[in-house]
């Protein structure tokens, strides 16, 4: 969803309505405000004198001093970063050509320089070419920028691959398994830390119980000795609370990468609904599916050979696609 769409949806919820209504600016400011993830910054601005006037100057982000305010956090850091990535992706997709429909706009990059492949029209035919075909002053064009490719060859090859992915249950299952495996590899450090925390929590909890039993059952008439026991119990309790807090935070973050049976069933249900309409689906619906699957395609050139490398959320490993040569 765009910020504007989120604002429109919030305006339909009675309990969420604002006096002046939600708008995209308000939503964007909230999404960009890191304090909701427990971090604020000191030194964003500085006062300087300009003649006799005092002016406020915005400082570059790298000079800001971060301050942790965990008690103000309403989401975890991982969720905040996911939202920022999605927001930036929306901006990238919004830059596509508005005059004509280019299916791969925002999903297609040059394999030589990494720049986006943009669409253009020549004598009634639509093509994709590297953005550096017309570089900025004092910058050289990409070595393969003159190797354009007609749009329908790319669009057909990519869409045939997506259709195969969504219409074959075995392929879909394999994709979901690869997605789970890839996510677990990327978060292996967190999984190890979670195992360590579970052991530390058990050990600390046992220590508290042991100290408590010793205090209750031990024959300690000396108040000084009893106070030492209480201090140790309090220290261990604080440690336990801290460990459980970290355990909860990591568990929430890892919940985003786990593919549960419910999630798997939801994906399959969505695919079943889509597959019945894949041949009659319109351009906007195709774009939505590509955005949901986060399809990424790279244009490769080696001499006279040209091919595509495609990935998506369900297939993290690159797949080679060879566009048809028919015009």
Describe this structure in words.
This protein has 327 residues and is α+β, with helices and mostly antiparallel strands. Helix content is 49%, strand content 17%. It is built from nine helices and eleven strands. It has helices at residues 3-10, 24-32, 77-94, 151-167, 169-186, 188-217, 223-255, 261-275, 283-293, and strands at residues 39-42, 45-50, 53-58, 65-68, 108-110, 117-122, 125-130, 149-150, 296-302, 305-311, 319-321. The strands form four sheets. It has a four-stranded mixed beta sheet with strand order 5-9-10-11, covered by helices on one side. Helix 1 packs across helix 2, helix 4 (151-167) packs across helix 5 and helix 6 packs antiparallel against helix 7 (223-255). The protein is extended, with a radius of gyration of 28 Å. It starts with a helix and ends in a 6-residue tail after the last strand. The relative contact order is 0.10. The mean pLDDT is 82.
Helices, strands, pairings?
Blueprint: H1 3-10, H2 24-32, E1 39-42, E2 45-50, E3 53-58, E4 65-68, H3 77-94, E5 108-110, E6 117-122, E7 125-130, E8 149-150, H4 151-167, H5 169-186, H6 188-217, H7 223-255, H8 261-275, H9 283-293, E9 296-302, E10 305-311, E11 319-321
Parallel strand pairs: 5-9
Antiparallel strand pairs: 1-4, 2-3, 6-7, 7-8, 9-10, 10-11
Helix pairs in contact: 1-2, 4-5, 6-7
């Amino acid at each position: 969803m765009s910020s504007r769409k989120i604002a429109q949806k919030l305006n339909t919820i009675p309990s969420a309505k604002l006096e002046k209504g939600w708008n995209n600016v308000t939503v964007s400011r909230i999404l960009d405000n890191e304090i909701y993830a427990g971090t604020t910054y000191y030194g964003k601005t500085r006062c300087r004198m300009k003649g006799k006037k005092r002016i406020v100057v915005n400082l570059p982000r790298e000079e800001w001093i971060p301050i942790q305010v965990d008690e103000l956090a309403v989401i975890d850091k991982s969720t905040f970063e996911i939202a920022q990535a999605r927001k930036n992706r929306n901006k990238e997709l919004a830059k596509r050509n508005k005059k004509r429909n280019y299916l791969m706009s925002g999903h297609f990059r040059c394999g030589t320089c990494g720049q986006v492949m943009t669409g253009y029209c020549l004598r009634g035919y639509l093509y994709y070419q590297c953005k550096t075909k017309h570089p900025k002053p004092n910058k050289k064009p990409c070595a393969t920028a003159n190797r354009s490719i007609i749009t329908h060859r790319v669009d057909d090859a990519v869409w045939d691959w997506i259709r195969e992915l969504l219409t074959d249950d075995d392929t879909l299952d394999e994709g979901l398994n690869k997605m789970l495996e890839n996510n677990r590899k990327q978060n292996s450090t967190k999984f190890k830390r979670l195992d360590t925390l579970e052991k530390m929590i058990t050990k600390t909890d046992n220590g508290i119980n042991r100290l408590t039993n010793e205090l209750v059952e031990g024959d300690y008439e000396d108040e000084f000795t009893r106070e030492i026991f209480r201090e140790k119990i309090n220290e261990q309790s604080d440690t336990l609370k801290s460990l459980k807090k970290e355990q909860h935070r990591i568990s929430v973050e890892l919940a985003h990468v786990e593919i549960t049976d419910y999630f798997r069933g939801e994906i399959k249900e969505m695919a079943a609904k889509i597959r019945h309409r894949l041949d009659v689906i319109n351009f906007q619906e195709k774009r939505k599916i590509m955005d949901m699957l986060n399809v990424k395609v790279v244009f490769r050139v080696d001499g006279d050979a040209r091919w595509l490398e495609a990935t998506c959320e369900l297939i993290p490993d690159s797949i080679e696609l060879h566009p048809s040569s028919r015009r």
